[in-house]
């Protein structure tokens, strides 16, 4: 254990009554990382890359547990019920920890006050994608097709409040359409059905989209950010493709339960930062098109402020869309 961690552990032990030995020996067993969506989707993929590297620096395995349901709010609620000792953590995102506030009147947690933020993991561009057989090859052809087929067209998503749900809500409102939506327990299974041609379109994170676009199994019409994505340089931005109003970047954040001792959070943050500095992790995330957080976003305090700003940003968007959900 390094000296800084020892001193921080001793200070927290005094302040919280936690025994200095308990704070110093963290982690004393494998850590469970709750992923609030199905395996194989973007949250799960990023988590598996980062958790493996974190396990090496923590000296204990970080084991993924997929707890899917209710747009990620089921797994997030589960974390608030776990012991606040750092041995259970999670990766939440724009949906579970920002959009959920306006979407779920009965949300069982407050994303701004019921968690101990560890650090932002990554940000992700959203891409507008469709099944290969959809008869459109450009974004404007896609918009025309959805408008002409509004009554029968559908878009897949990972549950009410998930990123794929809220970002397609935005897209649909910009296109002025209200198609059917098909919920899944994550965009891993939603992507499988898009590839199989069972659903028409999906607004999904580049991490989940890049391998499929490279394999030619789906179409990607545009990336909803100002610059092209490093993983898919041939896909135009929404501005280049004629829909400049559709700009949205989403994120993954690592969190512990509220009340987790500060030195334990600091140790987890150190491990997260070490993982994000690892050349292999960086290469894998870059290949998938994920972007790394800023130095400030990667701190517990920076993530706290970021989550609060994201709740403030998404609440009016969801209210304007007039959608609510139950969990
Ligand atoms: C989402 O749409 O919120 C995510 O893509 C869910 C997931 O990681 O599967």
Outline the fold blueprint.
Blueprint: H1 3-16, H2 20-24, E1 31-35, H3 42-58, E2 62-66, H4 73-80, E3 88-93, H5 95-103, E4 115-131, H6 139-148, E5 154-157, H7 163-175, E6 180-183, H8 187-195, E7 201-205, H9 206-215, E8 218-223, E9 249-257, H10 262-277, H11 279-288, H12 300-321
Parallel strand pairs: 1-2, 1-3, 5-6, 5-7
Antiparallel strand pairs: 3-9, 4-7, 4-8, 4-9
D-malate binds at residues 37-38, 41-44, 95, 158, 162-164, 186-188, 205.
Organism: Phreatobacter aquaticus
Signal peptide: 1-23
Family: Belongs to the UPF0065 (bug) family.
TL;DR of this structure?
This protein has 327 residues and is an alpha/beta fold.
What does it look like?
The protein is globular, with a radius of gyration of 20 Å. Helix 3 (42-58) links the parallel strand 1 (31-35) and strand 2 (62-66). The protein has helices at 3-16, 20-24, 42-58, 73-80, 95-103, 139-148, 163-175, 187-195, 206-215, 262-277, 279-288, 300-321; strands at residues 31-35, 62-66, 88-93, 115-131, 154-157, 180-183, 201-205, 218-223, 249-257. It contains twelve helices and nine strands. It has two domains: 3-124 and 252-321, 3-Layer(aba) Sandwich (D-Maltodextrin-Binding Protein, domain 2), CATH 3.40.190; 125-241, 3-Layer(aba) Sandwich (D-Maltodextrin-Binding Protein, domain 2), CATH 3.40.190.10. The termini are far apart. Strands 1, 2, 3, 4, 5, 6, 7, 8 and 9 form a nine-stranded mixed beta sheet that branches. The chain is α/β, with parallel strands linked by helices. The relative contact order is 0.20. Residues 37-38, 41-44, 95, 158, 162-164, 186-188, 205 line the site of D-malate. Residues 1-23 form the signal peptide. Belongs to the UPF0065 (bug) family.
């Amino acid at each position: 254990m390094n000296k800084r961690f020892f001193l921080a552990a001793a200070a927290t032990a005094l302040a919280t009554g936690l025994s200095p030995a308990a704070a110093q020996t963290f982690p004393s067993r494998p850590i469970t990382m709750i992923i609030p969506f199905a395996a194989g989707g973007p949250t799960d993929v990023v988590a598996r890359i980062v958790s493996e590297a974190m396990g090496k620096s923590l000296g204990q395995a970080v084991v993924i547990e997929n707890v899917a349901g209710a747009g990620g709010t089921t797994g997030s609620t589960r974390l608030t019920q776990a012991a606040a000792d750092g041995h259970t953590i999670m990766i939440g995102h724009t949906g579970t920890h920002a959009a959920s506030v306006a979407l779920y009147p009965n949300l069982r947690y407050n994303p701004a006050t019921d968690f101990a933020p560890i650090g932002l993991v990554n940000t992700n561009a959203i891409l507008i994608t469709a099944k290969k057989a959809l008869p459109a090859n450009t974004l404007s052809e896609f918009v025309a097709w959805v408008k002409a087929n509004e009554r029968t067209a559908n878009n897949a998503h990972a549950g009410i409040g998930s990123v794929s749900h809220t970002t397609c809500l935005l897209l649909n409102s910009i296109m002025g359409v209200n198609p059917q939506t098909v919920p899944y327990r994550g965009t891993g299974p939603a992507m499988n059905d898009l590839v199989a041609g069972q659903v028409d379109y999906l607004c999904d994170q580049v991490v989940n989209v890049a391998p499929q676009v490279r394999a030619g199994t789906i179409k990607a019409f545009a990336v909803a950010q100002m610059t092209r994505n490093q993983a898919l340089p041939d896909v135009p931005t929404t501005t280049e493709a004629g829909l400049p109003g559709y700009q949205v970047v989403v994120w993954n954040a690592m969190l512990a339960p509220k009340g987790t001792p500060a030195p334990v959070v600091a140790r987890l943050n150190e491990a997260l930062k070490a993982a994000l500095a690892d050349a292999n992790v960086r290469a894998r995330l870059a290949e998938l098109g994920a972007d790394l957080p800023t130095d400030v976003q990667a701190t517990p305090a920076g993530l706290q402020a970021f989550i609060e700003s994201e709740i403030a940003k998404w609440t009016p968007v969801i209210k304007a869309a007039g959608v609510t959900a139950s969990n």
